[in-house]
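In this section we walk through a basic example: taking a raw amino acid sequence and producing a predicted 3D structure, encoded as discrete structure tokens. The instruction is simple. Fold the sequence below.
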Amino acid sequence: MRKLKLGTVTGPHPKTAEAGMAMLKAGGNAVDAAIAAAFTESVVEPSHNGTAGYGGCVVLHLAEKSRVVAVDFNSAAPAAASDRMFAIERASTPAGYRVPARANVIGPLSVGVPGIVAGLCMTLEKYGTMPLAEIIKPAISAARYGFAPNSRNREIMRAEADRWRRHFPETARVHLRNGRPARKGERLTNPQLARSLEMIAEGGSAGFYRGPLAEAITSHIQELGGCLTMADMSGYRASVVKPYAADYRGHRLYTSPLGAGGLTTLQMMRLLERYDIAAMTVADRLHHCAEVMKSCWPERLERYGDPAFVEVDPDAELADALIDRLHRRLQRGLKSPAAGRLVYPEPNNCTSHISTADVAGNMVSLTQTHGGAFGSMVTVPGTGMTLGHGVARFDPRPGLANSIAPGKRPLHNMSPFIALRAGRPFASYGLPGGRTIPNNQVTLALHLIDLGRRPEQ
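The resulting token sequence is shown next.
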């Protein structure tokens, strides 16, 4: 009999946490727990993420090797995509422009290569201990036998039901119950998704990117007028990457690299370290946080993009020279507060985060997403899978650091964090919330480190 290992799993839905705990009870490690939870989460919170969601990222503390690594599985733009694929019209919107019919956000042209399956499979293969077929069982069970959507998912289903019935009938068929949104306590099933997950369990990542599932996805997208191809799918890879890191009051903070949002969080933390946060009133602390955010976000929205396309040196972005410049901007804001400047609006807020740890000291911080609610809103017939909208995470305007290009990966907001104190595990944390994620990661860190609050507080 395998030795029982204990640990902790946190996730947005009871079935998500239960799936991870089942792996720990079976003798798995924190990675096994996180991947089982993530596959299950892709079933039971369908508005926030999905098996064909656009992507995610994960940071792992590997106790045996005393090191922190990251896996990136961000979406990639199709080879036929370009920075001029969307019309840009002047409009009386906060941004001063719009894309007609929001075609960059909803529908077939918003779909990039889905990254979640590749990322979860790679993370498990490299750092887990259990077979994929075992890890994925709770997700298959949830899809086949049902789950009760939580209040936020039910709310989004109610808000989108009419749109689905008019424009996305397959999405309505899969995510509504007899043509209407599920009520509290009612269960939804998705037997076609259960079969798709079984195909992934049998074939691994290749079972999603190179076989019948990939053919079904690309054929449907092209029928609808999108540009995703089998070559885009088969050429996609997740990758092991070096996390970004910075020190903060005796803690070492690690997060996923660009296009993730954690670099901006680390910059904000470096600025706030210059102040005695614990001694501040609540109002003063909030004022400092607001001005720090206004100081750092223009760097992200104006200068950052896929590191394969845009030259960004993470060491320089966290070095004293840039932090000093940002601090001068911060001091001007503290002295003469004024409204912030709108650089680029993004109203989409839907993501899922999972954190796990085991008694050996392994920790996992994993975030994955569709993008906005139900992503592209395109569901592929016969698969039960709704596709994320990775292309929506680019700026649709040409000539910018985060403009669209073939094979390019967009900026996104996911920012999983792991913190060590004196080289030992301290915390794994993350959250949903679109553009608020990098900001809210600051709030979490301040409460955990400066104010000494427990996670539940």
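Looking at the output, two observations stand out. The mean pLDDT is 96. The longest helix spans residues 282-303. In the next section we compare this with other chains.
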